[in-house]
């Protein structure tokens, strides 16, 4: 997961200031109706707004970078102040854009940019004095609580990156329960009051912009109506849910066999702390628990290979860069290596959640990670670099087009590359000996290992925003935040907490993207788009074997066609970008289902007689 950062993304993710007193004084009196706008005025308005975005956005990105890589009260104040100033222009422009939006005769670009001004805002604030500063302060403070968060293991404090790693390797159910409960109690609960206030202010800001609430604003940013987008996500989930249900049934059976009825019941939901991830969003870390005998022994572990070959975090990032270079993309700039945070500093608090940045919207590309030498972070590196190469590909677009075709595209690019981390790719880069490549009888094992991350994630990718949409709409009140969160996780994921949750709990706040206010449906979309992109890339590369073994590493024709899509940025509606690379204008789960078809058949056979569902 990542929070990709560009000028527009920074502006979209923070709060805004009201019009300055000077600007307010310049506004016409209520008794003097404004003259009808003209096309020329609309063009000039857009041009000036974009110039202003380019001028102030970099300062906001720089302040946020300093804060996230050096958390102190001072840097928190600086990022809140810069965030409010940076995005004042965005909300003022969004409000003003409504005056021109319905004007006949607008050029394509002016009309699209006016629309983007109104929909690209993630966290608006009302125009009342001090509201924007308050929203920015709330967001910075919540991120600070998260970044400094600690859980406990055997009674001793453990930081965020370490507890996440421990959840993946520990098989003691009591210690897993301790880590899960302590993290959610220590990180989630303390931010609830700030989150409630942030929702109030953001909703007021969204209404000022003409939206029912902040959730409706978020759903408007996909080249379709909020209602149509919600319906699209329903359709996509319905396509892939049967495969998730099969995987859940099989995983629960294996967990029951390992831990017994007292820890994991044979029927019903799965205990959230048993699947190898703090948020139960990806289950690949417990592959050793579920791996089928014979077929499940793949003969290698990527983390072990990295350590055996002497990889350190920088060498891992160099390997990720090598994948993109093999497709014909230019090397990362020297400043990337000078300015990125690749490992966790020993002398200060930082936000360890992985993210990719372009601070000047030109070539100041960076990643921020607390990298560990393991397979998970090797995949994450390929993912984060996908953001960086996307950012650089569209850096010649105008400011309002400096973004992905939609936010799911931005997440999917690096994931597409990560799907190509196949045994063949590991051989090509010298990590795996060809004699160690799993034979065809291991295909189910390879597919199951992928599904434990890719398929297991799908309902989690959907439910976070489903929960937030209800919070923003008022359907879920603050007193019921945690009750609704727990119920939604059970409904979508079939997951339950490992212990009782009190009335003051705020478990959603223990997931980075909630305090950071990063919309999450993008990750659900990305899980489907990446298989569409991957399937198209393999077809372009002329791959004829099983899809899950395809690697297009080294294929410059694929890189050239992908670069053409990436360079479009947000200048065209996302169906056009999708068509440019895949030939289809429709987001679909069908490519994912084709990829996992052999596994689906195998899971059905292995879960006969089980009471599936929860």
From TrEMBL:
One of its GO terms (biological process) is proteolysis. The active site is at 384 (proton acceptor 2), 384 (proton acceptor 1), 513 (proton donor 1), 513 (proton donor 2). The keyword Signal applies. Disulfide bonds join 352-370, 538-550. Keywords: Disulfide bond, Glycoprotein, Metal-binding, Signal, Zinc. GO terms for cellular component: membrane. Chloride binds at residues 222, 522. Residues 1-24 form the signal peptide. GO terms for molecular function: metallopeptidase activity; peptidyl-dipeptidase activity. It comes from the Bacteria. Zn(2+) 1 binds at residues 383, 387, 411. Transmembrane segments: none annotated. Zn(2+) 2 binds at residues 383, 387, 411. InterPro entries: Peptidase_M2. SUPFAM superfamilies: Metalloproteases ('zincins'), catalytic domain. The keyword Manganese does not apply. Pfam families: Peptidase_M2. This is M2 family metallopeptidase. It comes from Novosphingobium aerophilum.
